[in-house]
Amino acid sequence: MVSEANLTSTNITTTLNTILHEVTDAIFPWSYSEVLKILGVAAAIALTVVIASGIKLIMRKLVSNRLPRHIYIPIERFVFYGIIAIGVTAALSPLGIDLTGLLVAGGVAGIVVGFAAQTVVANALSGIFLHIDRPLKLGDPVQVENISGHVIDISIFSTRIKTWDGNIVRIPNDKLFSSLITNYTASVARRIEFKIGISYSSDISKAKEAILKVFNDHPIVLVNPPPEVFVEDFGDSAIVLAARCWVPAQLWFATKKQLLELIKKAFDEVGVEIPFPQLDLHVKEGVKIVIKRERQEGAQAIS
Amino acid sequence: MIEVNVGDKVSIEEAEVSRDSERVYVKDRYQEASYIVSRESKVVLNPTPPLNVPLRITDYLLLQFQEPMLISKNVNFWVKAPYELAVLADDTVLTYLTPFKVKHTLHGEIIGGTICRYFLTSTYFRRPSKGSEALVKISIIARATALMDGIVIPLSNVRIYVSSGKVFYNVVRVTVNKGIKVELLSEAPVPGATAIDTGLSNSGKYRSYSELYSWLWGW
Questions:
Q1: Which residues of chain B have a CB within 8 Å of the CB of A217?
Q2: Nearest-5° Cα angle at B211, B205 to B212
Q3: Cα–Cα distance, A196 to A212 (Å, whole number)
Q4: Of B205, B28, B105, the residue nearest A220 (C-alpha)
Q5: What is the CATH T-level fold of the domain A135-183, as seen in this structure?
Q6: CA-to-CA distance for A208 and A229, rounded, in angstroms?
Q7: Do A135-183 and A20-114 have the same topology in CATH?
Q8: Contact B50, B84 (CB under 8 A)
Q9: What is the per-residue pLDDT across A32-52, written as a single tens digit (0 to 9) for each?
Q10: B105 and A223 in contact by Cβ < 8 A?
């Protein structure tokens, strides 16, 4: 009886052990080494997230204030999630999960999409470079190729310029980036130059003094660099004076149009003549000139 | 501060303000205008830093010395400087007038330089008594030798004082070392000088660039 009881007890113990192992295996299906691998993967993923976050913070400190928000945010997200994707792919490989194929597929898809949208991508990249290079800013008076006006918007894909006559011109950023850009306010001062013809009978020194007085009396014309006036050419009908002065860049046009009127007034006051084109005709030999005069109807004809 | 009553006509160099029972008339080299102001209103002229006429381009003033000065020891001297007149009616700025001719200049290079208001002045080792320009006391601290032909003053920090009908800037301290450092001290240039409210120069009632087109020139 005793041995039978012992046997039964042993069976129960064995059965219980078997059940316990099955339950344990069901709950923890991994071996010790596998558990270590999983912990390593988790740590690697956590490290990736930490590194990505760190890079994001560094970018915010160093780059974010150099780029407009709508440009910076997509870049930040691209970098952050790119690092996470690469890190997770690398971290999962010890577990036999290979995402390289997925990445390659994604890369191929990216190339296909890139080809399809290369203009858009080129514009976007040019937009980013424009923000880094900053050849123009909002409000700058600029000339891009043959378009002149104020910059009113610089977006990721295009730049809009309000021309002097009020039209809005949209220039794709890739075209803008490869164009000749003249920024009229990049320097604090700009030169105004006039070519003024005076008659050969006028006094050159009086004309020069009159122009210099206009420059010296004008509050916006700068003292330094000094204005200058000199004879540039002896033209067909006029002595051509070149008059140059410097003004604050933002007031260039307004000052220029005032100065021209003031110079004309100053010439009138000192008696300097601005001539119209003239042609002196010299006849070497006597030429018979016939003049016919007609009388109104009813009057006698003059022979 | 000069009060302009009905029937008064006040002239300071090229600036002129007159008043009848209905209007205030203002005139200087760059403008001529009138404002409807009731006879009960208080109209005054306050000297302010020269920032606004004919339009605000810069916050800096270059005082160019007629003769360069060799700085080798601590010295105090006086120079003349421009100022403007704020025309106020019941504490509201009507306009700014300039008693003096206005010129500007470039200080530094064309790229990276600064546009400054320009004024040519003699240097005086005794306070000059003639002339209607403002007076500026320059206090030089020489830690090196330098040849100085002018100084640049940040006008937005200038405080205007009045004493016995004369207009003064606050004392300017110039330290000459490896470079030249300009500081505007808070002390009055002469004992008993009255400080004019400096808020005027920053009141925002100055001409903008867009108003350039509507200048009233004397020509």
A1: 101
A2: 125
A3: 13
A4: B105
A5: SH3 type barrels. (2.30.30)
A6: 6
A7: no
A8: yes
A9: 777 788 888 889 889 999 999
A10: yes
The two three-digit tokens of residue B62, written as one number: 């270059």
| Beta-bridge partners for B75 | B140
Checking DSSP bridges between strand B180-184 and strand B194-195, what pairing results, if any? unpaired
Name every residue in B having a CB less than 8 A away from some CB of A: 30, 54, 57, 101-107, 110-115, 118, 209, 212-213, 217, 219
CA distances from A288 to A11, A128, A282, A285 (A): 152, 78, 15, 10
pLDDT value at residue A70: 66
| Statement: residue B168 has pLDDT above 90 | yes
pLDDT at site B215: 38
A117-120: Cβ within 8 A, 24+ apart: A119/A172, A119/A174, A120/A157
Q: What residue segments make up the domains of chain A, in order of their start?
A: 20-114, 135-183, 189-270
pTM: predicted TM-score of the whole model, two decimal places: 0.69
Mean pLDDT throughout B8-31? 93
What are the pLDDT digits (tens) for B117-130? 999 999 999 999 88
Rounded to a whole number of angstroms, the distance from the CA of A232 to the nearest CA of chain B is 25
Is B112 in Cβ contact with A225 (below 8 Å)? no
Is domain A189-270 classified as CATH 3.30.70.100?
yes
B102/chain A closest Cα distance in angstroms: 5
Distance, in Å, from the CA atom of B137 to the CA atom of B171, rounded to the nearest integer, reads 5
Residue identified by tokens 């010790």 is A32
- Give A111→chain B minimum CA distance, Å: 44
The answer to whether the beta carbons of residues B63 and B49 sit under 8 Å apart is no
Query: What is A20-114's CATH topology?
Result: Helix Hairpins (1.10.287)
Name the pLDDT band for B209 (thresholds 50, 70, 90). very low
Could you give the CA distance from residue B64 to residue B116 in angstroms, rounded to a whole number? 11
ipTM (interface predicted TM): 0.85
Report the 3 state secondary structure along B38-74: CCCCCEEEEEECCCCCCCCCCCEEEEEEEEEEEECCC
